[in-house]
Design goal:
FAD/NAD(P)-binding domain, alpha/beta, single chain, 13 helices, Enolase-like, domain 1, 3 domains, five-stranded antiparallel sheet, 24% strand
Protein backbone atom coordinates (compact mmCIF):
# COMPACT_ATOMS: atom_id res chain seq x y z
CA UNK A 1 0.00 0.00 0.00
CA UNK A 2 1.18 3.53 -0.75
CA UNK A 3 0.29 6.12 1.85
CA UNK A 4 -0.32 9.81 1.35
CA UNK A 5 2.23 10.41 4.10
CA UNK A 6 4.56 8.48 6.37
CA UNK A 7 5.21 10.29 9.62
CA UNK A 8 8.36 9.62 11.62
CA UNK A 9 7.72 10.20 15.32
CA UNK A 10 4.57 9.80 17.41
CA UNK A 11 4.88 12.89 19.59
CA UNK A 12 2.65 15.99 19.39
CA UNK A 13 3.92 16.95 15.93
CA UNK A 14 3.64 13.43 14.54
CA UNK A 15 0.35 12.22 15.92
CA UNK A 16 -1.39 15.52 15.22
CA UNK A 17 -0.17 15.41 11.62
CA UNK A 18 -1.69 11.93 11.29
CA UNK A 19 -5.00 13.09 12.76
CA UNK A 20 -5.15 16.23 10.62
CA UNK A 21 -4.39 14.23 7.48
CA UNK A 22 -7.15 11.79 8.38
CA UNK A 23 -9.56 14.66 8.88
CA UNK A 24 -8.70 15.70 5.32
CA UNK A 25 -9.40 12.21 3.99
CA UNK A 26 -5.73 11.28 3.53
CA UNK A 27 -4.09 7.99 4.49
CA UNK A 28 -1.24 8.29 7.00
CA UNK A 29 1.21 5.84 8.54
CA UNK A 30 2.54 6.97 11.92
CA UNK A 31 5.80 5.33 13.01
CA UNK A 32 6.92 5.45 16.65
CA UNK A 33 9.81 3.52 18.14
CA UNK A 34 8.84 3.94 21.78
CA UNK A 35 5.57 5.31 23.18
CA UNK A 36 2.86 7.15 21.28
CA UNK A 37 2.68 10.69 22.64
CA UNK A 38 6.44 11.09 22.56
CA UNK A 39 8.40 13.05 25.10
CA UNK A 40 5.56 15.47 25.85
CA UNK A 41 2.84 13.09 26.96
CA UNK A 42 5.12 10.50 28.56
CA UNK A 43 8.15 12.25 30.00
CA UNK A 44 7.66 16.01 29.70
CA UNK A 45 4.69 18.36 29.47
CA UNK A 46 2.03 16.16 31.07
CA UNK A 47 3.93 14.43 33.91
CA UNK A 48 5.89 17.57 34.80
CA UNK A 49 2.68 19.57 35.19
CA UNK A 50 1.20 16.72 37.21
CA UNK A 51 4.04 16.88 39.73
CA UNK A 52 3.76 20.69 39.78
CA UNK A 53 0.04 20.38 40.59
CA UNK A 54 0.87 17.94 43.39
CA UNK A 55 3.48 20.31 44.80
CA UNK A 56 1.17 23.33 44.54
CA UNK A 57 -1.62 21.46 46.34
CA UNK A 58 0.72 20.47 49.16
CA UNK A 59 2.20 23.94 49.61
CA UNK A 60 -1.08 25.84 49.23
CA UNK A 61 -2.56 24.80 52.56
CA UNK A 62 0.79 24.80 54.33
CA UNK A 63 1.29 28.46 53.46
CA UNK A 64 -2.27 29.69 53.95
CA UNK A 65 -2.42 31.96 57.04
CA UNK A 66 -4.18 30.36 59.98
CA UNK A 67 -3.90 26.83 58.59
CA UNK A 68 -1.81 24.04 60.09
CA UNK A 69 -1.48 21.14 57.66
CA UNK A 70 0.52 17.95 57.54
CA UNK A 71 0.60 15.83 54.39
CA UNK A 72 1.93 12.32 53.81
CA UNK A 73 2.87 11.50 50.22
CA UNK A 74 3.18 7.96 48.90
CA UNK A 75 5.01 8.75 45.70
CA UNK A 76 4.88 5.14 44.49
CA UNK A 77 1.07 5.27 44.54
CA UNK A 78 1.13 8.69 42.95
CA UNK A 79 3.36 7.36 40.16
CA UNK A 80 0.85 4.57 39.52
CA UNK A 81 -1.90 7.17 39.20
CA UNK A 82 0.28 9.35 36.95
CA UNK A 83 1.06 6.54 34.54
CA UNK A 84 -2.58 5.48 34.51
CA UNK A 85 -3.52 9.02 33.51
CA UNK A 86 -0.80 9.14 30.84
CA UNK A 87 -1.80 5.76 29.44
CA UNK A 88 -5.37 6.99 29.01
CA UNK A 89 -4.10 9.96 27.03
CA UNK A 90 -1.72 7.97 24.82
CA UNK A 91 -4.22 5.19 24.09
CA UNK A 92 -6.80 7.86 23.29
CA UNK A 93 -4.43 9.45 20.78
CA UNK A 94 -3.75 6.10 19.12
CA UNK A 95 -7.49 5.41 18.83
CA UNK A 96 -8.04 8.87 17.33
CA UNK A 97 -5.43 8.22 14.64
CA UNK A 98 -7.13 4.93 13.78
CA UNK A 99 -10.60 6.51 13.82
CA UNK A 100 -9.52 8.79 10.95
CA UNK A 101 -8.14 5.91 8.92
CA UNK A 102 -4.52 6.26 9.97
CA UNK A 103 -2.25 3.37 10.86
CA UNK A 104 0.31 3.14 13.66
CA UNK A 105 3.48 1.09 13.29
CA UNK A 106 5.68 0.41 16.31
CA UNK A 107 9.37 0.22 15.51
CA UNK A 108 12.36 2.23 14.37
CA UNK A 109 11.68 3.94 11.07
CA UNK A 110 14.69 4.49 8.79
CA UNK A 111 14.40 6.79 5.77
CA UNK A 112 15.47 5.04 2.56
CA UNK A 113 14.47 7.76 0.12
CA UNK A 114 12.14 10.75 -0.12
CA UNK A 115 9.26 8.32 -0.69
CA UNK A 116 10.17 5.24 1.37
CA UNK A 117 10.85 4.25 4.97
CA UNK A 118 11.96 0.89 6.36
CA UNK A 119 11.01 -0.72 9.66
CA UNK A 120 13.23 -3.74 10.05
CA UNK A 121 13.09 -5.59 6.73
CA UNK A 122 9.75 -4.11 5.64
CA UNK A 123 9.60 -1.11 3.31
CA UNK A 124 6.71 1.37 3.30
CA UNK A 125 6.09 3.83 0.48
CA UNK A 126 4.37 7.21 0.51
CA UNK A 127 3.88 10.31 -1.60
CA UNK A 128 5.20 12.40 1.30
CA UNK A 129 7.33 12.00 4.41
CA UNK A 130 6.89 14.10 7.54
CA UNK A 131 9.82 14.25 9.96
CA UNK A 132 8.49 14.76 13.48
CA UNK A 133 11.30 13.29 15.53
CA UNK A 134 11.24 15.95 18.25
CA UNK A 135 14.12 16.82 20.53
CA UNK A 136 16.38 15.27 23.16
CA UNK A 137 17.98 16.67 26.32
CA UNK A 138 21.27 18.50 25.84
CA UNK A 139 24.20 16.93 27.63
CA UNK A 140 27.49 18.23 28.98
CA UNK A 141 30.47 16.20 27.83
CA UNK A 142 32.15 14.42 30.72
CA UNK A 143 29.16 14.65 33.04
CA UNK A 144 27.41 11.32 33.09
CA UNK A 145 25.22 9.25 35.40
CA UNK A 146 22.92 12.15 36.30
CA UNK A 147 19.15 12.40 35.98
CA UNK A 148 17.26 14.09 33.16
CA UNK A 149 13.57 15.02 32.99
CA UNK A 150 12.53 11.43 32.21
CA UNK A 151 14.25 9.96 35.27
CA UNK A 152 13.37 12.68 37.80
CA UNK A 153 9.69 12.46 36.89
CA UNK A 154 9.73 8.72 37.64
CA UNK A 155 11.35 8.81 41.10
CA UNK A 156 9.54 6.66 43.68
CA UNK A 157 10.38 8.90 46.65
CA UNK A 158 10.98 12.56 47.38
CA UNK A 159 14.74 13.04 47.59
CA UNK A 160 16.16 14.74 50.66
CA UNK A 161 18.24 17.02 48.45
CA UNK A 162 18.48 17.87 44.76
CA UNK A 163 20.96 19.89 42.71
CA UNK A 164 19.53 21.24 39.46
CA UNK A 165 22.14 22.05 36.82
CA UNK A 166 20.53 24.63 34.56
CA UNK A 167 18.29 27.52 35.60
CA UNK A 168 16.14 27.58 32.48
CA UNK A 169 12.42 26.93 32.51
CA UNK A 170 12.64 23.14 32.98
CA UNK A 171 15.05 23.42 35.90
CA UNK A 172 13.08 26.18 37.58
CA UNK A 173 9.75 24.38 37.17
CA UNK A 174 10.96 21.05 38.54
CA UNK A 175 13.27 22.54 41.17
CA UNK A 176 10.43 24.63 42.58
CA UNK A 177 8.06 21.65 42.62
CA UNK A 178 10.47 19.43 44.53
CA UNK A 179 11.22 22.23 46.99
CA UNK A 180 7.50 22.48 47.77
CA UNK A 181 7.44 18.73 48.34
CA UNK A 182 10.05 19.07 51.07
CA UNK A 183 13.28 18.59 49.15
CA UNK A 184 16.33 20.80 49.73
CA UNK A 185 16.96 22.28 46.28
CA UNK A 186 19.98 24.06 44.81
CA UNK A 187 19.92 25.55 41.29
CA UNK A 188 23.16 26.17 39.39
CA UNK A 189 22.94 28.45 36.34
CA UNK A 190 25.89 29.43 34.13
CA UNK A 191 24.31 32.68 32.94
CA UNK A 192 24.02 35.87 35.01
CA UNK A 193 20.45 35.14 36.10
CA UNK A 194 17.82 32.42 36.14
CA UNK A 195 15.44 31.96 33.20
CA UNK A 196 17.83 33.32 30.53
CA UNK A 197 15.93 34.98 27.72
CA UNK A 198 13.13 36.11 30.02
CA UNK A 199 12.91 39.79 30.93
CA UNK A 200 14.51 40.33 34.34
CA UNK A 201 11.55 42.44 35.50
CA UNK A 202 9.37 39.34 35.00
CA UNK A 203 11.72 36.66 36.32
CA UNK A 204 12.42 38.67 39.50
CA UNK A 205 9.04 37.59 40.90
CA UNK A 206 9.96 33.94 40.42
CA UNK A 207 13.37 34.44 42.02
CA UNK A 208 11.77 36.08 45.06
CA UNK A 209 9.42 33.14 45.42
CA UNK A 210 12.26 30.65 45.11
CA UNK A 211 14.19 32.49 47.81
CA UNK A 212 11.12 32.37 50.05
CA UNK A 213 10.95 28.61 49.51
CA UNK A 214 14.55 28.26 50.63
CA UNK A 215 15.95 27.32 47.23
CA UNK A 216 19.64 28.14 46.90
CA UNK A 217 20.54 29.76 43.59
CA UNK A 218 24.04 30.01 42.13
CA UNK A 219 24.23 32.19 38.99
CA UNK A 220 27.26 32.83 36.82
CA UNK A 221 28.40 29.42 38.00
CA UNK A 222 30.07 26.80 35.82
CA UNK A 223 29.97 23.13 36.72
CA UNK A 224 33.39 21.50 36.37
CA UNK A 225 32.72 17.99 37.63
CA UNK A 226 29.95 15.76 38.96
CA UNK A 227 30.88 12.71 40.99
CA UNK A 228 28.52 9.96 42.11
CA UNK A 229 29.42 8.10 45.28
CA UNK A 230 26.92 7.75 48.12
CA UNK A 231 25.01 10.63 46.58
CA UNK A 232 26.44 13.28 44.29
CA UNK A 233 29.19 15.87 44.58
CA UNK A 234 29.17 18.84 42.22
CA UNK A 235 32.33 20.92 41.85
CA UNK A 236 31.93 24.47 40.57
CA UNK A 237 34.65 26.44 38.79
CA UNK A 238 34.74 29.04 41.58
CA UNK A 239 35.70 26.39 44.15
CA UNK A 240 32.27 25.78 45.63
CA UNK A 241 31.51 22.13 46.35
CA UNK A 242 27.85 21.09 46.49
CA UNK A 243 26.43 17.77 47.65
CA UNK A 244 23.00 16.22 47.21
CA UNK A 245 21.16 12.93 46.98
CA UNK A 246 20.31 13.49 43.30
CA UNK A 247 21.46 15.71 40.43
CA UNK A 248 19.09 16.82 37.67
CA UNK A 249 20.54 18.06 34.37
CA UNK A 250 18.38 20.64 32.57
CA UNK A 251 20.69 22.58 30.28
CA UNK A 252 18.32 22.72 27.32
CA UNK A 253 17.20 20.51 24.46
CA UNK A 254 18.41 19.91 20.92
CA UNK A 255 16.66 18.66 17.79
CA UNK A 256 16.69 14.92 17.21
CA UNK A 257 18.20 14.52 13.73
CA UNK A 258 20.36 11.43 14.13
CA UNK A 259 19.74 7.71 13.74
CA UNK A 260 16.82 7.56 11.31
CA UNK A 261 18.47 7.98 7.92
CA UNK A 262 18.08 11.73 7.42
CA UNK A 263 21.48 11.81 5.73
CA UNK A 264 20.09 9.69 2.86
CA UNK A 265 17.90 12.56 1.68
CA UNK A 266 20.20 15.31 2.98
CA UNK A 267 17.77 18.22 3.52
CA UNK A 268 19.10 21.73 3.95
CA UNK A 269 19.77 22.49 7.62
CA UNK A 270 19.43 25.66 9.68
CA UNK A 271 22.12 25.08 12.26
CA UNK A 272 21.06 21.92 14.10
CA UNK A 273 17.48 22.18 12.84
CA UNK A 274 15.94 20.96 9.59
CA UNK A 275 15.24 24.06 7.53
CA UNK A 276 11.65 24.50 6.38
CA UNK A 277 9.70 27.15 4.51
CA UNK A 278 6.43 28.69 5.67
CA UNK A 279 4.54 25.65 4.43
CA UNK A 280 6.77 23.33 6.53
CA UNK A 281 8.41 21.92 3.40
CA UNK A 282 12.07 20.97 3.51
CA UNK A 283 14.45 21.44 0.60
CA UNK A 284 13.66 17.86 -0.47
CA UNK A 285 10.51 17.61 -2.57
CA UNK A 286 7.70 15.80 -0.73
CA UNK A 287 9.47 15.90 2.63
CA UNK A 288 8.12 18.03 5.48
CA UNK A 289 9.37 18.68 9.01
CA UNK A 290 7.29 19.78 12.00
CA UNK A 291 7.77 20.52 15.68
CA UNK A 292 11.02 20.69 17.61
CA UNK A 293 13.16 19.24 14.83
CA UNK A 294 12.15 22.08 12.50
CA UNK A 295 13.17 25.08 14.58
CA UNK A 296 12.42 27.27 17.55
CA UNK A 297 10.40 27.61 19.63
CA UNK A 298 10.52 23.98 20.77
CA UNK A 299 7.01 23.79 22.20
CA UNK A 300 4.29 21.14 21.92
CA UNK A 301 1.63 23.65 20.88
CA UNK A 302 3.95 24.92 18.15
CA UNK A 303 4.22 21.31 16.96
CA UNK A 304 0.41 21.02 16.90
CA UNK A 305 0.27 24.17 14.79
CA UNK A 306 3.08 23.05 12.44
CA UNK A 307 1.29 19.73 11.97
CA UNK A 308 -1.91 21.38 10.80
CA UNK A 309 0.01 23.52 8.30
CA UNK A 310 1.90 20.51 6.92
CA UNK A 311 -1.27 18.40 6.70
CA UNK A 312 -3.11 21.14 4.81
CA UNK A 313 -0.32 21.41 2.25
CA UNK A 314 -0.01 17.64 1.83
CA UNK A 315 -3.77 17.64 1.26
CA UNK A 316 -3.41 19.98 -1.70
CA UNK A 317 -4.27 23.23 0.05
CA UNK A 318 -2.02 26.21 0.67
CA UNK A 319 -1.32 27.13 4.29
CA UNK A 320 1.57 29.04 5.84
CA UNK A 321 2.82 29.38 9.41
CA UNK A 322 2.48 32.68 11.21
CA UNK A 323 4.15 32.58 14.61
CA UNK A 324 3.35 36.17 15.62
CA UNK A 325 1.10 35.08 18.49
CA UNK A 326 2.97 31.99 19.71
CA UNK A 327 2.49 31.78 23.50
CA UNK A 328 5.33 30.76 25.77
CA UNK A 329 4.67 29.63 29.33
CA UNK A 330 6.99 28.94 32.24
CA UNK A 331 5.16 26.89 34.89
CA UNK A 332 7.11 28.49 37.70
CA UNK A 333 5.63 30.06 40.82
CA UNK A 334 4.12 32.40 39.85
CA UNK A 335 3.70 31.34 36.24
CA UNK A 336 5.13 33.50 33.46
CA UNK A 337 3.22 33.64 30.17
CA UNK A 338 4.06 35.74 27.13
CA UNK A 339 2.79 36.02 23.58
CA UNK A 340 3.21 38.23 20.54
CA UNK A 341 5.81 40.97 20.41
CA UNK A 342 6.91 43.71 22.77
CA UNK A 343 6.49 47.46 22.31
CA UNK A 344 7.38 50.46 24.46
CA UNK A 345 3.71 51.29 25.01
CA UNK A 346 2.33 49.50 28.08
CA UNK A 347 1.54 50.01 31.75
CA UNK A 348 2.05 47.42 34.47
CA UNK A 349 -0.86 46.31 36.63
CA UNK A 350 0.47 44.78 39.86
CA UNK A 351 -0.99 41.42 40.80
CA UNK A 352 -1.50 42.83 44.29
CA UNK A 353 -4.42 44.93 42.99
CA UNK A 354 -6.37 41.82 42.01
CA UNK A 355 -8.82 40.69 44.68
CA UNK A 356 -8.97 37.08 43.52
CA UNK A 357 -5.17 36.79 43.64
CA UNK A 358 -5.05 38.20 47.17
CA UNK A 359 -7.73 35.72 48.21
CA UNK A 360 -5.44 32.98 46.89
CA UNK A 361 -2.59 34.36 49.03
CA UNK A 362 -0.71 35.70 46.00
CA UNK A 363 0.55 39.27 45.73
CA UNK A 364 3.71 39.04 43.61
CA UNK A 365 3.28 39.43 39.86
CA UNK A 366 2.20 41.71 37.05
CA UNK A 367 -0.18 42.04 34.10
CA UNK A 368 1.15 43.78 30.99
CA UNK A 369 -0.26 44.33 27.49
CA UNK A 370 1.83 45.77 24.65
CA UNK A 371 0.15 48.05 22.09
CA UNK A 372 1.24 50.19 19.16
CA UNK A 373 0.57 53.90 18.75
CA UNK A 374 -2.96 53.13 17.55
CA UNK A 375 -3.59 50.93 20.63
CA UNK A 376 -3.65 47.76 18.53
CA UNK A 377 -2.59 44.88 20.77
CA UNK A 378 0.77 43.42 19.78
CA UNK A 379 1.50 41.15 22.72
CA UNK A 380 1.32 40.57 26.42
CA UNK A 381 3.22 39.30 29.45
CA UNK A 382 1.63 38.01 32.65
CA UNK A 383 3.28 36.88 35.87
CA UNK A 384 0.48 35.40 37.93
CA UNK A 385 -1.04 32.16 39.14
CA UNK A 386 -2.62 30.41 36.14
CA UNK A 387 -1.06 32.89 33.73
CA UNK A 388 -0.97 29.96 31.30
CA UNK A 389 -4.78 29.98 31.21
CA UNK A 390 -4.98 33.76 30.70
CA UNK A 391 -2.52 34.38 27.89
CA UNK A 392 -4.69 32.97 25.07
CA UNK A 393 -6.97 36.01 25.31
CA UNK A 394 -4.01 38.10 24.20
CA UNK A 395 -3.04 35.66 21.44
CA UNK A 396 -6.56 35.94 20.08
CA UNK A 397 -6.41 39.74 20.32
CA UNK A 398 -3.14 39.79 18.36
CA UNK A 399 -4.49 37.42 15.69
CA UNK A 400 -7.74 39.39 15.38
CA UNK A 401 -6.11 42.83 15.36
CA UNK A 402 -8.08 43.98 18.41
CA UNK A 403 -7.31 47.18 20.27
CA UNK A 404 -6.80 47.50 23.99
CA UNK A 405 -10.14 49.31 24.19
CA UNK A 406 -11.81 46.22 22.69
CA UNK A 407 -10.45 44.22 25.62
CA UNK A 408 -11.00 46.99 28.13
CA UNK A 409 -14.66 47.30 27.18
CA UNK A 410 -15.18 43.52 27.41
CA UNK A 411 -16.91 42.55 30.65
CA UNK A 412 -14.81 40.13 32.69
CA UNK A 413 -16.34 38.21 35.62
CA UNK A 414 -15.56 39.36 39.15
CA UNK A 415 -13.66 38.27 41.11
CA UNK A 416 -11.26 36.58 38.72
CA UNK A 417 -7.62 36.69 37.77
CA UNK A 418 -8.79 37.55 34.24
CA UNK A 419 -9.76 41.01 35.49
CA UNK A 420 -6.03 41.71 35.50
CA UNK A 421 -6.09 41.26 31.72
CA UNK A 422 -8.91 43.77 31.40
CA UNK A 423 -7.14 46.27 33.66
CA UNK A 424 -3.85 45.90 31.79
CA UNK A 425 -5.75 46.75 28.60
CA UNK A 426 -7.41 49.75 30.28
CA UNK A 427 -4.04 50.89 31.61
CA UNK A 428 -2.70 51.39 28.09
CA UNK A 429 -5.15 54.26 27.63
CA UNK A 430 -5.05 55.49 31.24
CA UNK A 431 -8.37 54.11 32.48
CA UNK A 432 -7.49 51.18 34.74
CA UNK A 433 -10.17 50.91 37.43
CA UNK A 434 -8.24 49.60 40.44
CA UNK A 435 -4.75 50.98 39.84
CA UNK A 436 -3.51 54.44 38.91
CA UNK A 437 -0.24 54.26 37.03
CA UNK A 438 2.34 57.01 37.33
CA UNK A 439 3.80 56.15 33.92
Amino acid sequence: MEYDAIILGGGPGGYSTAIRLGQNGKKALLIEENRIGGECLNYGCIPSKAVIELADAVSYLKEMPGVSASVTIDLKKWQEWKWGMINKLTSGVEKLVASYGGEVAKGKGIIESSTSVKIGNETFNAKNIVVATGSIPSRIRGIDDVLYNKEILDVDHIPKSLIVIGGGYIGIELGTAFAKLGCEVTVVEMMAGILPGTDADLSKFVERRMNALGIKIFVGAKVEKVTKSDGYTVNLADGNVLRAELVLMTVGRQPNTQGFGLEKINPEMDGKFIKTDKRKRTSVSGVYAVGDVSGQPMLAHKAFYDAEIAAENISGKIAEVDYRAMPFVIYSDPEIATTGSKTDKFNNIPLATNGRALGMNYNQGVFRIYVDNDYVIKGGAFVAPRASELISEISLAVEAGLTSKDLGMTVHPHPTLSEGVKEAAEATYGKSLHYKSSR
